[in-house]
TrEMBL record:
One of its GO terms (molecular function) is symporter activity. PROSITE patterns: MFS, SUGAR_TRANSPORT_1. This is Major facilitator superfamily (MFS) profile domain-containing protein. The lineage of its organism: Eukaryota, Viridiplantae, Streptophyta, Embryophyta, Tracheophyta. It comes from Vitis vinifera (Grape). GO terms for cellular component: membrane. The keyword Transferase does not apply. The chain crosses the membrane at residues 25-49, 61-84, 91-112, 124-150, 162-183, 189-212. It is found in: Membrane.
Length: 254
């Protein structure tokens, strides 16, 4: 029904620039940008390099990368099970706390113990792997899948296609930027790279706390009335919203 309604809408990108379209557009784009600034792609792309840096040999660093990949896959199942039971905001906020602790702990360990020898003893290196797994785990049940889910369900029908296109483009752009920049940043910032991402995680938590509405059990066609017009911040943007076209088309299809 959403596809049929979208086909009837004229100038979806023009509608996307309206004031009433800003809340879902901002949410959609920022969810994708923040997803990259958790540091997850940096860690997943360069896990072997990271583990070699803390003292693992080649084979062990590759094995550790496989372990973090498996943690990523299986932790996603938690989100599949819990997203409509627990809610989006709770998963995101819990993950922000866990990711912040993991990133700062990794940064602190590397800052204190990596200075002199450029390697860690076996116990500390193992602890870094555990912390990386905890970080990946929390990402995989929150900002990983929900970074895609929330933009897909927050746009009104009449701008859903164009809005989600902008959100996905933001993801691709910042994936490229982080992937290109991370290795140089790690070489120059060393342990402070983890504090850099931890600071972003704080910003992400505040964004969720104050600006991200809960969309659990809200149908797409009811998003404007039940979410945006009720939110203490975003309701100010909805004075020029006219969703009659999209609603009329869905009604006709039904």
């Amino acid at each position: 029904m959403a596809c049929e309604a979208a086909r009837e809408v004229k100038d979806p990108f023009k509608r996307l620039m309206k004031r009433s379209s800003m809340p879902p557009l901002i949410i959609g784009v920022m969810m994708q940008v923040f997803q990259q600034f958790t540091g997850i792609n940096a860690i997943m792309f360069y896990a072997p390099v990271l583990f070699q840096t803390v003292g693992f040999k080649n084979d062990a660093s590759l094995l550790s990368s496989v372990i973090t990949g498996l943690v990523n896959v299986f932790s996603t199942l938690v989100s599949i099970y819990g997203v409509d039971r627990v809610g989006r905001r709770k998963l995101l906020l819990q993950a922000c706390v866990q990711m912040f602790i993991s990133q700062t702990a990794i940064g602190a360990i590397l800052l204190v113990h990596l200075k002199g020898s450029n390697s860690l003893d076996e116990g500390l290196a193992g602890l870094v792997v555990v912390l990386v797994c905890l970080f990946v785990m929390s990402f995989a049940w929150s900002w990983g899948p929900l970074g895609w889910l929330i933009p897909s369900e927050t746009f009104p029908l009449e701008i859903r296609t164009s809005g989600f296109a902008c959100a996905v483009s933001s993801n691709m752009l910042f994936t490229f930027i982080i992937a290109q920049a991370f290795l140089s940043m790690m070489c120059h910032m060393r342990a402070f790279i983890f504090f850099f991402f931890a600071a972003w995680i704080v910003a992400m938590g505040l964004f969720v706390l104050f600006l991200l509405p809960e969309t659990k059990n809200v149908p797409i066609d009811a998003m404007v009335e039940r979410v945006w017009k009720q939110h203490p911040v975003w309701k100010r943007f909805m004075d020029d919203y006219d969703g009659k076209e999209g609603v009329k088309n869905v009604g006709m299809i039904i």
